[in-house]
TrEMBL record:
This is Branched-chain-amino-acid aminotransferase. It comes from the Eukaryota. It catalyses: L-valine + 2-oxoglutarate = 3-methyl-2-oxobutanoate + L-glutamate; L-leucine + 2-oxoglutarate = 4-methyl-2-oxopentanoate + L-glutamate; L-isoleucine + 2-oxoglutarate = (S)-3-methyl-2-oxopentanoate + L-glutamate. NCBIfam families: ilvE_II, PRK13357.1. InterPro entries: Aminotrans_IV, Aminotrans_IV_CS, Aminotransferase-like, B_amino_transII, BCAT-like_C, BCAT-like_N, BCAT_family. Belongs to the class-IV pyridoxal-phosphate-dependent aminotransferase family. Its cofactor is pyridoxal 5'-phosphate. PANTHER family: AMINO ACID AMINOTRANSFERASE, BRANCHED-CHAIN-AMINO-ACID AMINOTRANSFERASE. Its EC number is 2.6.1.42.
Amino acid sequence: MDDEYGGMKWDNLGFGLMKTDYMYTMKCGKDDKFKQGELSRYGNIELSPSAGVLNYGQGLFEGTKAYRREDGGLFLFRPQENAIRMQIGAHRMCMPSPSVHQFVDAVKQTALANRRWIPPPGKGSLYIRPLLIGSGPILGLAPASEYTFLVYASPVGNYFKEGTAPLNLYVEDEFHRAARGGAGGVKSITNYAPVLKALSRAKDRGFSMSCTGFVNKRNIEEVSSCNIFMLKGNVISTPVPNGTILEGVTRKSIMDIARDLGYQVEERCIPIEELVDAEEVFCTGTAVGVAPVGSITYKGNRIEYKMSNEVVSHKLYSRLVGIQRGIIKDNKGWVLKID
Ligand SMILES: Cc1ncc(COP(=O)(O)O)c(C=O)c1O
């Protein structure tokens, strides 16, 4: 297995882009279906200056991971969910989308072609980034004439600089991430640049950019690129997706795991004030896993949460990782062996 690692130093792997060997590309016309894609060496792509994605933001992205287990086996976690989310997003953004089979096959091919970049167990994973963009030229506002589905990958370790330490969240009250009827419920590229201002404001106040929370009419909605949960007694609550929240694959998995462990799981509007009474708050996402929140700062007030090794979020995360690593039996068909 050492050969596969090619002398890479995997310790201290963060969440930065590391170029890998191959990417996958598949194209189709406006009223067409995606057919056959192919792998090519990773590199720059050529786009018309009037491509739909560059001018009108007609684009979606996804994020999933390939893992290496102790026995060397390579696995994906619920890639079909990402495929379905891309299809829903494509419908919202007037784009054709790859079938679930095409999506999963492209992710698989990209992971295998870059297998030497999948870190050893416990050191990280290969983050896989599928993109669907309007690549055809268009001048008047309309759907692009051609679409490109592209998949690339980068090995990653911890998303948060703080590692596994509890997160200190800063909740933004001026800039909103998404509005009802907008595209907040899908992974449109247009949702991300507008929040950079809020993230940099949080950074100026001494918080990590990836720890910025968003409220809508005083209800907590999301944290940068993860979903948020609170625990009180035996009840685990998370904001109800009403078109402004991205329904995470990790969110869905953690809700299932929590129910299996006997918790009552609720999706509802959560006024930010309610977090004061929470016993635990935690965030979920492909990049972050399940991250406990140590404090929340909103309108100058700071709420702190007690931390211990016994926290429920840790129990939920252990179960998720156990299934991903093959330590806990996957009786839900969540993991997909790819080699
Ligand atoms: C805005 C937003 N919320 C939540 C998530 C978490 O989703 P997932 O668990 O599928 O990674 C992401 C990341 O994809 C995101 O961008």
